[in-house]
Amino acid sequence: MSDPDDDHRQATIAADGQLSERSPAAEDTNDFGEPKGADETDGGFSRYAVASLLQKAVRRSDEETAAWAAWELARSGFAWNVWDRCHLYVVEDLAAGQQVALLIERYETLATERWEPSSWRGRLCAIHAVLACARARSSREAANADEYFRNVAQIRADAAERGAEPPHDFPVGEFEPGGEFDAVFDGHTAAGSERDREAGFFKTRGARVGPEGEPELSARWQRLNMLFHETEFDEAAIEHALEPVDPEDPWAEPPEGTLLDRDGGGDASATDDTTGRNTTDQNATRRDSSDQ
């Protein structure tokens, strides 16, 4: 996606003769009537410091300070800096799954494509965006995870060079068939294909969800699909496939070969097409009851 602020980041010559990334539409003087430096805001502040203040105020949920910083940058011709910081916040400081990430994109589009970024409407968009960020749940989880994994990668490499066991390792450990994450080595992987782990293994292990499990309608579809499948699944295999994973041990699975998943067509005729439940045993139970 092209940067919608590109048109507003043309280099201009400031009063001090330095190149500036301020919008050409911005005023040449500050609030005091003095010529502005290349990176000076209308209030006489460094735009680098104000941009840093903006992100840290959002991170600390200081709404008023964040709103002022966005307003100061936008009115001074540095609106692009507001949007750069907002997008950086979304990936660096925002807890995963927050919908504010989508709002930022919309506010930026309005401010830069519909209106002039430093105009009244453009400034309102900037303020709206940073307030939405400041009110969202902040977390540096992604940045912390990235740094931690990079550190562990280096620790593993250093340990390998010394021929020693690393004091810290990735969460997957050895990551091989038969280990904790055995369920991932199905027919979609080379290791799984070599072990003939095709549809049966995937359906009963690789496709399980958790910890809430499949919604009722989805579970019904899954049950019927397994009964229709060319692989023959017994009731224990189907029930296991539908069972939510254990939130305390999400990778726990029964030993390979303990679930029935023979090749061959499933018997859909023995299935209630409304509930997906096996009706053969139910009919047998009714017959047994009538004989008594």
Describe what you observe in this structure.
The protein has helices at residues 47-59, 63-75, 79-92, 100-114, 120-135, 141-162, 190-194, 199-206, 216-228, 235-242, 280-291, and strands at residues 12-13, 19-20, 231-233, 261-263. With 292 residues, it is mainly alpha-helical. The protein has three domains: 6-135, Zinc Finger, Delta Prime, domain 3; 140-171, no CATH class; 182-285, no CATH class. A two-stranded antiparallel ribbon has the order 1-2. A two-stranded antiparallel sheet has the order 3-4. Helix 2 packs antiparallel against helix 3. The chain is elongated and about 80 Å long. The termini are far apart.
Shape summary: elongated
Number of structural units classed as domains: 3
CATH architecture of the largest domain: Up-down Bundle
- The run of helices and strands is EEHHHHHHHHHEHEH
Determine the strand fraction and express it as a percent band. under 5%
Low-confidence stretches: 1-8, 10-19, 262-276, 278-292
CATH topology of the largest domain: Zinc Finger, Delta Prime, domain 3
Specify the helix fraction band: 40-55%
Cα(first) to Cα(last) distance is 74 Å
Quantity of strands, as a count: 4
Indicate the CATH class of the largest domain.
Mainly Alpha
- Main structural class: mainly alpha
Question: Biggest β-sheet: count, sense, barrel?
Answer: 2 strands, antiparallel
Number of helices: 11
Rg, nearest Å: 30 Å
Strands of the widest sheet, in order across it, are 1-2
Overall mean pLDDT: 81
